[in-house]
Amino acid sequence: MKSLDEYLREAEAAHGHLCAGQVLGVRMAMAGLSRLGIADARGADRKRLVTYVEIDRCATDAIMVVTGCRLGKRALKFFDWGKMAATFVDLQSGRAVRVAAKESSKEAARRAHPEIAAKNQQQMLAYREMPNEELFDFQNVRVEVKPEDLPGYKGERVACSKCGEGINFHREVAKDDTILCRACAGESYYLPMKDGR
């Protein structure tokens, strides 16, 4: 595993800036991997790891840098729960650890560096220095990763009976003996415009 400073430089380059969320994300991933005994997540151990993130903020980009997990590789899973938390799953051992940032870490950062007025700068420095136990809650958890959710899974592709679009990874919905995509089954996040309006 690389040093904190090395990961932070990579996270800054990947994300476009360095902030407190980036520091938390790097520390969170390093702590999770350490608890699982995964030393080289981007190298020799890269096929062992699936990571679930619970927020779409700066920390997620930092977690991707440390773990090497990506959405496109199907090794990063996103749940929009709005929590500064991630779960790291070792596919080889079946062990998993959920790491969540403590809400109290913000106040701890203020106490650690009252001489720094800018909140982001204060947190960035404190989050580099604070012990893991002061920054995070750790919980050993069980995650059942379905075969169709594994990196490299090759499964059948079906077509939606209504719109005709292809559906991968068993994400179709069976409704009244009809195969539908989630949008046609009523789970759409978008609304089609009539006549382009």
Secondary structure elements and pairings:
Elements: H1 4-15, H2 20-36, E1 49-53, H3 58-67, E2 76-78, E3 85-90, E4 96-101, H4 104-112, H5 119-129, H6 132-135, E5 136-141, E6 158-159, E7 166-167, E8 173-175, E9 178-180, H7 183-187
Parallel strand pairs: 1-2
Antiparallel strand pairs: 1-3, 3-4, 4-5, 6-7, 8-9
Helix pairs in contact: 1-2, 1-3, 2-3, 2-5, 4-5
Mean pLDDT: 92
Gyration radius from CA atoms, angstroms: 20 Å
What fraction strand? 15-25%
The fold-level CATH name of the largest domain is 60s Ribosomal Protein L30, Chain: A
Please, could you describe this protein's structure?
The chain is α+β, with helices and mostly antiparallel strands. The chain has two domains: 4-147, 60s Ribosomal Protein L30, Chain: A; 158-196, no CATH class. Helix content is 35%, strand content 18%. It is built from seven helices and nine strands; from the N terminus they run ααβαβββαααβββββα. It has helices at 4-15, 20-36, 58-67, 104-112, 119-129, 132-135, 183-187; strands spanning 49-53, 76-78, 85-90, 96-101, 136-141, 158-159, 166-167, 173-175, 178-180. The strands form three sheets. The protein has a five-stranded mixed beta sheet. A two-stranded antiparallel sheet has the order 6-7. A two-stranded antiparallel ribbon has the order 8-9. The mean pLDDT is 92.
